[in-house]
What we know:
The structure holds three protein chains of three kinds. Helix content of chain A is 76%, strand content 3%. By secondary structure, chain A is an all-alpha fold. The longest helix of chain A is centred in the N-terminal third of the chain and has 31 residues. The N and C termini of chain A lie far apart (43 Å). By secondary structure, chain B is an all-alpha fold. Chain B is 77% helix and 1% strand. In chain B, strands 1-2 form a two-stranded antiparallel ribbon. Chain C contains twelve helices and 14 strands. Helix content of chain C is 35%, strand content 19%. Chain C starts with a helix and ends with a strand. By secondary structure, chain C is of the alpha/beta class. Chains in contact: A-B, A-C, B-C. Chains B and C meet through helix 1, helix 3, strand 2 and helix 12 of B and helix 1, helix 3 and helix 4 of C.
Amino acid sequence: MSMKIATLILNGLTEGALFFVLGSGLTLAFGLMKVVNLSHGAFYLLGGYIGLSVLGATGNWVLALAVSGLSIAVFGLLFERTMLLRVRKGGDLPQTLLTIALSTIIADVALAIWGGHPQSIKVPPVINPPITVLGITYPGFRYFLILSSVIIAFALWFILYKTRFGAAVRASVDDRETVSALGVRIDAIYTIMFMLSALLAGVAGVLGGTFLQLSPGEDTTILTYSLVVIIVGGMGSLLGTVVSSLILGQILSFGLAYAPELSMFLVFIPMAIVLAVRPQGLLGRES
Amino acid sequence: MKEAGKKGGRLLAGLLIVTAVALLPLYASPYTITTFIRIIYFGFLAMSVGLLVGQGGMISLTQTAFFGLTGYVVGLLGRERRLPFPVPELSGIAAVIVMATIFALVIMRTHKIVFLMITLALGQICWSFARQNTSLLHGWAGIRGIRPFPLVGIDFTQGSFFYWMSLALFLAGLLIMWRIVRSPFGLVLKGIRENPLRMRALGYPVYWVRVMVFVIAALYAGIGGILAVYATGIVTPTTMQLSRTIWILLVVILGGANYFWGPVVGTVIAVWLDVIISQVTPRYNTVIGVIFVAVVLLTPNGIMGLLDRTRHTFRAATARRRLEGGERE
Amino acid sequence: MRKRVLCLMACVMLFAGALSAAPNTINIGILSAFTGVFSSFGEMQKEGAVLALEEVNYSIAGKKLNVIYADDQLDNEQAVTKAKQLVEQDKIDILTGLVSGDEGLTVGDFMKDKKIPVVPMYSASEDMTMREWYPYIVRATWTGAQPMDPFGYWLAKVKGFKKIYMIGEDYSYPYNQGGGFKRGFFRGGGVEVKTVWHPVPTSDYSSIIASIPLDQGYDAVMYNGSGGDAVAFVKQFVELGMHKKITLIGQSNTFEKPDLDSMPKEIVGSYSAMLTTDDLSTPAWVKFRDAFAKRWGHNPSTASEFAYDSMRMILRAIAKLKGDVSDKAAIVKAMLSVDMSDSPRGPIKLGQYNAIIENVYIRQIALAKDGSMYNKGLFTVKNTSQFGPYDPTLYLSQPADGRAYPPETASALPAEMKQVSKEYQFVPFGQ
C-alpha cells in the first residue's frame, strides 16, 4: 500500500475519531430527549478554549482535558435545569430555540475572552512522538486520539447496556410515561444525559483543539459536522454514530487530498443520500 | 359607532405612517435611507421565515440560502456576464423556485426538530459550497461591483430612486402576503400548523400544501436577496452563514411569529438595534442572544404578543372598572 | 403603539443624520478588522496609526484630527456597510485602514464615485493600483507580487532551484503572491511551480501534506499562506516528518512574527521575502521600533509599520495643505509629493498609479541568542516596483493573477514575460 494512501486512511480514522466523540453524546441526548442541542458546537469551542487556558496556567494537558470536560458538563447542568426544564412543557421547539440562543451567546463571549486569532492547544511531546510504523511517520497524538475514541465508545456502550441507568435511558426512549410511572425520575435522567453530552463536547473541544485549531466560526463548522454524523448514523443510535463517523472521516480525508475545494461539500453527500433513501438514518428507528 | 371610529382612527394612523415613510428621502439623511433600505430587504427575508414559522409551524433555517442564491445569480449573470435586465433577476427567481421545489420535495415528509436540523444542514451545504468554491463563486471574496441597471431612464444607483422602488416592491409584497394569509390556502396552512394529522384525515393534501408554501417563502427570500445585492453591491458567503440565519429567526420570533406584522416589526427593531448597539459595544451577538432567551422564556409570542396581552389586560381592566362604576351608580 | 414607536425612531434617525462633523475638524476613517478572526490586524494597524497621530498631537495647523474606527471583521459586506456609514454619517475626509486584498478591492469599488482619498494600509491586491485604480487611491505599502518576484528570481538564479511544489490558500492574495513568484522564478531559470489550492481556513493539512510527491525532484515545498493556517501547516509538516525530506519555504507573511514563535524550531533555515526583516538596524528603524515599544510594550509588526507610514504620509500631506482638506484632489496631489525617504523600513516613494517603490528583503529564519526564531536579512533589493522589472503596459496586457494564471510551467509562460531589460541586483543585507 502506498505511503500516501496509508496516511490518508489514518487521517480518516483521526477525523472519524473526533466525529464520533462529537456525535455520540449528541445522538444519545436527542434519542432520549427529542431535543437537539444546537449549542453542541459552542460547547466544543468553549471546552477547547477552557482547556487552552488551563494548559497555559498549569502546563498539564491531562488536567486541561479533565477540567474542560467537567466544566462544560456543569455548564450543561445549569443550562438544562434553569432554562430547558422551564420550557419543556411547551414542547421541543422552545427548548431547541433556547439552545440556538445559547450558542450565539457562548460564541460571542468566547470571542470577547479569548480573541479572534486562531489558536491551538500545545500537545505535550510525550504523547506526540512521531511514530514510524512500516515506513509511515505519523504523529503519536493522532494515534492517541483514535485510541481515546475507542475507549469512549466502549465506555458509552457499557453505560448504556450494562448499567441500570442505561437501561432506564433505553426504556425512556421507548416509553417515557411507563418509565415515569414505575417511579424512575425522568427529569433526572434527562439532566444526566444532557450533562454527559456536554462533557463529551468539552472533551472533544480539547482533543480537536490540540490537533486542529480553535477560532471563531469553528463552532458552527463542528455543529454542522455533528449534525451530519447523527443524521447519517441515525438519531439515537450509538452504533449508527460509530458507522457514520468511520465513513465520513474517510470521505473528509480523501476529499481534502483529491478535491480540497469540495472537501466540505463531499461530506454532505452521504447525508443527502440518506435523507432521500432512508430518512431515519442508517441505523435509526422509524419515527 | 365606536367601532367605526376606531377603524377610522387605525386607517388614519396607517396612512400617516405610509406617507411619512414614502416621503423619507425628502427630509432624512442618506444614512437613514440606507437603514430603511436594509429594513426592507431584511424584511422580505423575515416575511419568508415568518410565513413558514408563523403560518406553517415549520422552523426553516434554509431561507438565507435562497436570499444568497439570487444574489449570486444576479452577480454572475448581471455583473460578470453583463446580461441586461431582466435576465439576471428572472434567472435568480427561477433558480430559487427550482432549488426550493427540490428541497421541499425531499424534506417535507419530516417534521419539527428533524425538519429544523435538515434545513440547517441544507443551509450549511449552500454556505460551505459558496465559501469553498473559488472557480465560479470566488470563495469568501464573493462577487462585487454589482449595480442595478437603469430602467426606463431612471438611474437606480441613486439612493432615493432605489429606495422608492424597494418600498413599492415591499408594499406589494406585504399586500400579496396579506391576501395569501387570508385566503383559503392560508387557512388550510394554519390548520396544518395546528394539527396536521387531522387535516390529512379531512382529506387535505398536507404534503403538497407544505411544498407550495416552502416555494412561496423561498420566493420572498429571493426577492429580498436581489434588493440586498443591489443595495450593497456585493454578495459573499457571509450572507448565508449560520449566524445570519439565527439572527433572522430571532427577528421573526422577537416580532411575534404568529402575527402577520410580527416579522416586519421584528426587522425594524433589530436593524435599529444594530445601528445603536454597534456604536456602544461590539458585543451585538451577545445582546441578541440574551434578548432571544428572554423572548423565549417570557414572551414566546414576541413583541406583538406582548402588545396583544397588554391590550387585553387593559381592555379587561377598563371593562371591569366600567362594570364596578356602573354598579356603584 | 406601533405608530408611536415608528415616529420616535424616525425622529431619532433624523437627529442622528443632522449630527455631522464640526467645521474645524478633519475626519479620518480607519476601516479594519477589530473583532473576529482577523482582529490582530486591526489592533496592529491601530497601534501604528496612533503612534503617527500622537507625534502631531492629533492636530495640524490648528485643526483637530478626529479618527473614527469602523469594524468590518474583514467581511466584505460589512466593509461596504461600514464604508457607507463612514461616508454618509461620519462625513470622513480620508478613508484608510483596510487589511485584506478582497476587502480593499470591495471598498475601493464602493468608493469609486465618492471622491474621497482611499489609502489602503495593508491590502495587497495589486489591482487596486492597477486594473481597478482610480486617481483617489494612494497606496504607500505593497502589492502581493512585489516581494515575490525578486524572491522567485533569486531562488532560481542564485540558489539554482528548478522545481517547486506550492500549496496555497485559495483566495486572491496568495494568487498574487504566487503570480509574482512564478514570473520571477521562470525568468531566473526555474522550470515548474506545481500549484495546489486549499480552502480557507483549513485545520487539518495531513492529507494535503501526505500528497506531496517526494520522488519527482521538487527542490522545495512553498507554503503560500499565513496566519493560523500557516502555523497549522508548518506544525503538521514537521509532525509528519516532512522537514527531513524536503526544504520548506514560505510566502511573505508565512514566517512573520508573532506567528513564527508558534512554529517548531525545525524550520530554521527557511527562506522568505518581505518588505521588512526582523534584524533591520537602520537609524530610522531603530527610532521607530523604540518609540513603538515604549508606547505599546512590544515590538512593531510589519502591519504596524505599514499603518504608521501610511498615516504619516496622510498627516504630512495635510500639513502641506495647511489643514485645508476641502479639495480632495489636492490632498492626493500633496500625498504624492510628500518625502518619505525616512520611512522606518527603508526609503519609499510613490510612482505610477500612486503605487509604492521600495526595498524588498530576502531573509532566512535563524535562531537568536535567546532561543527564539527570527528572520535574518540576507539580501536587499532596492527600488522594486509593483510591476517588477516589467514594462507596465506589458504587465497589464497579461491576465490578472488567479488560480490558473500564471501557468505552472516555464514553457507555458509567454516569451515576452521571460525577458526584461534590467534585472534585479541583490545587495548583501546591511549595505
